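Q: My collaborator sent me two sequences in one message, no labels, and asked for predicted structures for both. Can we handle them in order? The first one she listed is below.
A: Yes, handling them in the order given. First sequence, followed by its structure tokens:
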Amino acid sequence: MQNLTGEIELVSIATVFLLLITLAPIAFVLMHQRQYMRYLQDKEQMKNLYQRELLQSQIEIQNQTLQQVANDLHDNVGQLLTVVVMRLNALEDEVAEPTQQAAVLQTRDLVRTVIADVRTLSKTLDHDTVRRFGLLPSLTLELERIQRTGRIQAELSTLGEPYILGEQVEIVLLRMTQESLNNALKHAQAKNLHVLADFKSDSFILTISDDGRGFSVQKATARQLDEAGSGLTNLYRRATLLGGTCVITSQPGAGTRVDIRMPRSQ
């Protein structure tokens, strides 16, 4: 009987030992995989953090540059144009010929229009405008400036109850809109521009569309470095790094649509 008990104990010990030998490598592999996954997660987090900091630096540099341009437009160009108007006022009194007076008046009106456009442009370039008045008034200002050129119809519409998205997000959205509108003005030969701000309960969607000649998105994104512009890449990257998405839909002859979706921060 004692011999049987001893054999059972021996078999049990051997079984446990074999199990330990079998499970140890599996546990080691699982532990290694877990550490590797944690390493990959940490690496991805560091990469995202680096890219966000890089984007933040780029945004700050861009804002400082545009701020300087806005100040120069307002303080230097605006003041010079005001001096031109004063000179034209004096010239109006000096000329007696009706035809010349009419020419002076037309020129003065044209310069006043330029002054108004310069002031509007300086405001849309100034990020302080977004901070003080918000995204929708800034978009309105931008589209009114385009509308005054008389070459294109520009319209802003909204859906839902407007809410604040945060200063940085709104500045980036304004810059993305300006970039999309500039692309439409420079390349699309569009006659109509439409910006739609859709305030949903869980997300904000900004859509910029035009009825221009369109382009192949696939070909544009596949261009070589020396042929490619940075516009589309900037739109994709900025949306992604702010936690959103950007979808560009276009084809030759069918206009272009840019959909930017941002999650609503609670």
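Q: And the one she listed second?
A: Here it is, processed independently of the first:
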Amino acid sequence: MPLLFNKHITPNSQLALWHITEGVDGLLLLLNCRIDPLVLNVNEQLKKQRISARILVNLLCTEPCNEIKYDSYNKPSLMNSTTKISISHAHDRVAVIINKVNETGIDIELIKSKVERIARRFMSEAELKQLDNNNRIEQLITYWCAKETLYKYYGKKELLFRENIFVEPFAQNASGKLVGHIKTSHINIDVSLCYEKTGDYMLVYVND
């Protein structure tokens, strides 16, 4: 079953997760909408991810076949709707979240130990000291997903993960809530997040 779940986060926000099991032709049949050929001028894996994202957008939005456009910061939005969207894909998983009012963000990543090698590039010293060695890899992936989600929520490319995006200490479980902060010389934003482990993947999204 390609659709793993489709759920409301708040009255204004909803997310869905797709498991890619079909080929390109099968996905296009499920989409049943015209798609810009330029969107599909990519490798096979990315092609399937892009079509799956549009299937989820159709599922979550009331307007059928709504085109996705990207701004100069590569932040996605809908062509004919004010509904905010965020998209993430990793390997055979695609996640989409919408919010009818506020900005939103989502990220999904395969849980892999190689995150350890880049931890010092995206974690502050204070965050590194908070890691639980019993759940270190899953917690590092959760931090990474949380910071990616906050980066997408803000939507501009002026943030450094280690210097501008922070996550308050938390205990790693199968699911839970997080508090994130985006801080620069001119902004200070607090964002509520949720995380959950789904199979071999970690999913983080804005809880608003």
